[in-house]
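Changelog note: in this version the structure field was regenerated for every chain. One regenerated record is shown below for reference.
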Amino acid sequence: MSQPTLTTSRLIVRPYQMEDKPELIDLIGDPLVSKPLLIVPYPYTEKDADEWINSRQVAFEAGESAQFVVTSKVSGVLLGGCGVIMIPKFNMAEIGYWVGRKFWGQGYTTEAARAVVDWAFDNFGLNRIYARYDVNNPASGRVMQKLGMQSEGILRQHVLKDGVYCDMAYYGLLRSEWLKKVVNTTL
């Protein structure tokens, strides 16, 4: 099974390709972009990009995750990334996202994340999608709120990143909440 390509009014949200490597390194290699991301190393190297891109289809086929690159529908320029990590035992997934600094504040992250949330709920029968962010990155929390996610609390000093313990805010969206939103949107 191949990972699909999703489209929105402004975006193409598609599987990573090796041709994305130069733009990926450039955008995510920015310390202001990579610092709040828990699984992204800094500096971000060509080897990191190779490993990430080469492992995405295998992870999708194994049912572990679906990671997408976010590009402009008009120009094809890489803007960022978005994906879900599946937790099938508990019928849920964690969503994560990032966008290059020069594209901040334009709504791309919310638009891409909404497409991925809809796709994940539609295709995997999930009961819940959750997200977390370092409380020092409130912009990420605003995306979660725009997706209709509810605050579930803050875990203090929950994650160690670059030698510093970070407080993590958790948000969640239940299938029943998502369905209400979908029904209200289509009326």
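Spot check on this record: Residues 36 and 91 are 27 Å apart (CA to CA). The mean pLDDT is 95.
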